[in-house]
Amino acid sequence: MSVEEFRKGFGEDWQLSQFWYSAEFAARLAHLMAPIVSRSDVLVFISSPTAYVGFQHAYNRKQTYLLEYDRRFELIDAEEFVHYDLEEPLRVPEHLKGRVDFAVVDPPFLNEVTSRKVAETVKELLAPKGRVLLLTGRSIADAACGIYKEVADVELKETALKVEHAGGLANAFGAWASWPDAEKFGSEGT
């Protein structure tokens, strides 16, 4: 399923703070991720269904999971869909605990409470050398980076990636990541 097909089939639910990425951004993100993840890596997309759809449309790989509250997305791939509830941040499948090599995270609400809950989930999921890509609003970024360091022991650096949403948002978004040279991720030439 392409991102355009996804957007037509599943409308954004603003009550769940769903704001889809543009098809171009989802494709670019997938293209940027592909060379830095191995075929054996376990990937999760937390609250970022358009990023998941864009990646799977381009690469259709196993061990790639969507953790999302909205159960409509189970229709995309029931085996890779994991119902995720912020109110139960540690309730994740046993087979993913401590095994996730790369997590793409876009918390649904731009506040510290949500950031802390998602960071708890990331801590539960991440493998010892796991990497995180956080896509979030610039208004919460400093606090979120501090929370991820405190809760999940993940040091995040701002990347060069420009985040684009389909409908445009009033909030400016950016991307922060946890691997060496992460600040180059999304720059021209990468």
Automatic annotation (TrEMBL):
It holds the Pfam family N6-adenineMlase. One of its GO terms (biological process) is methylation. SUPFAM superfamilies: S-adenosyl-L-methionine-dependent methyltransferases (SSF53335). GO terms for molecular function: protein-lysine N-methyltransferase activity. The keyword Cytoplasm applies. Keywords: Cytoplasm, Methyltransferase, Transferase. One of its GO terms (cellular component) is cytoplasm. It is found in: Cytoplasm. This is N6-adenine methyltransferase.
